Amino acid sequence: MRRTAVRAPRAEVEQPSQEAAPLPPAAPAPAPVQRQTLQTEFAFELPRGYVDEAGTVHRDGVMRLSTARDELVPLRDIRVQENPAYLSVVLLGRVITRLGTLPLVHDGVVENMFASDLAFLQDFYRQINAEGHTRATVECPHCAEPFEVELGGSRLGES
């Protein structure tokens, strides 16, 4: 037995009259929207690692981009007012969102890190908050040889 599809009856199409107004031109299709994403968190690995009270070493972590508030709030901290070098400790305590298996990262954790890890984190902070780098290629005015210069400040929050 052969099956055939049932066809719907054809509708009569009305032809436009000669007197009808022409249709306006079709609007161009809107360009596809390109969604840009902004990376706000960056993974890192400490050179030595933070050692907690139990002796566990924590090396891998995540740092987020800094906000204006992150850089302003520590300036009201009495420890920073008494010792401006403490700014980096308080600031890093705000922007490090994860470190190993620690449940919470705060300035107390940062101040107990090895100096080499603190220096690493300060440099990492400058890199991610300066669109990935703090160096610029320049040319020597005497010999025209290109070389790189460091644009970052000496402490966090400076440029």
Topology:
Elements: E1 41-51, E2 57-64, H1 68-72, H2 78-82, H3 87-95, E3 96-99, H4 107-111, H5 115-129, E4 135-139, E5 146-150
Antiparallel strand pairs: 1-2, 2-3, 4-5
What does this structure look like?
- By secondary structure, the chain is α+β, with helices and mostly antiparallel strands.
- 25% of the residues lie in helices and 21% in strands.
- The strands form two sheets. A three-stranded antiparallel sheet has the order 1-2-3. A two-stranded antiparallel sheet has the order 4-5.
- A hairpin with a 6-residue loop joins strand 4 (135-139) and strand 5 (146-150).
Question: Any key phrases for this structure?
Answer:
single chain; 159 residues; alpha+beta; three-stranded antiparallel beta sheet; 5 helices; extended; disordered C terminus
User: Helicity, in percent?
Assistant: 10-25%
What is the residue-mean pLDDT, rounded to a whole number? 83
Tell me the β content: 15-25%
Query: What is the CA-CA span between the terminal residues?
Result: 85 Å
Secondary structure class reads alpha+beta
Profile the largest sheet.
3 strands, antiparallel
Give a count of the beta strands, DSSP E runs of length 2 or more: 5
Can you tell me the residue ranges where pLDDT is under 50 for at least 5 consecutive residues? 153-159
Silhouette:
extended
Order of strands in the sheet with most strands: 1-2-3
SSE string, helices as H and strands as E: EEHHHEHHEE
**Count of alpha and pi helical runs:** 5
Measured on Cα atoms, how large is the radius of gyration? Answer: 31 Å
